[in-house]
Structures are given as C-alpha cells and as structure tokens.
Amino acid sequence: MNAGKPAFPVNPPDSTILVIEDNRDDQEMIVRQLKKSGVNEKVMCVSDGTDAMELIRAGAQKLSRVCAIFLDLSLPGVNGLLLLQAIRANVETSLLPVFIMTGSTDPKDESESTRLGATSFIPKQLLSLPSYRTKIAELFRAPDISDEPSVPPN
Length: 154
What we know:
Blueprint: E1 16-20, H1 24-36, E2 42-46, H2 49-58, H3 60-63, E3 66-71, H4 80-89, E4 98-102, H5 107-115, E5 120-123, H6 130-139
Parallel strand pairs: 1-2, 1-3, 3-4, 4-5
Helix pairs in contact: 2-4
C-alpha cells in the first residue's frame, strides 16, 4: 500500500457494510466497534450462511450498496470459507474487502482465509482493542479515533 493513499475508495453516503455473523452478541459487538471507529456506513447483518450465499449469488441485485464484508467462519448452513470463495468467484463481489472475524485460534483458518483472498483476519477477542479500531478507521478513511488529543495545524 502506498503511504498516504487510502486502502479503499471513498464510499458513497448510502453505502452498507455487510456483517455475516450468527451470534447476536458478536453482531452487536462488531457494529459497536465499527461505530467507535468512526465508520458511518449502514450495517446489514445476516446470521445464516445459506442466506448469505443467496445474497452473494444475487450479486449486484442485492449487494449494490455493500462496500465491505465482515465474515465469521463458523456459520450455520454454509461456512465462512465457502462464502469467501463464492465472494471472490462472483465478478460483482470479487473486489469487495472481506474481513474475517472469528473466534478460531486455528492457524489453518487464517492461512486458508488469506489464500482465498481475505483482506484481513481479525480474531474476535482482539476486535475491542484500540489498535484494531484504529486499523478499521484507517481502512474506511474515518477520522482518527486515537485516545491522544489532536493538535490543530499551524
């Protein structure tokens, strides 16, 4: 990545982040961390892998406003790795950033996610750390949310 350049293009005001997560508490935690990161996009949650696969197969018809996907690996119906494959195989979704959010500590999950084209792999237990909120803010070009006060330019 070039210094000073954003990771992703500016998202239109009506863009949406898709969270594919079966646990309601984890959905709420992800949404809360996005808001704390200064990310203002709408959030759509899907809690079943089969429902998520239908959305992905529908492509632009259902996902035209989606600017990023947060994806759990352990889902009912279709698992997250199969969904990631489908996202990357669909020309309409292949370029979307996909952040794997999982409670798994198996290194194979991270290596397989990376091999399949995941943008980032973030263990859920680390999501609430300020360093991860800063990373999310930077990825979405949100304002700096560090705990240090900002100094106005001279």
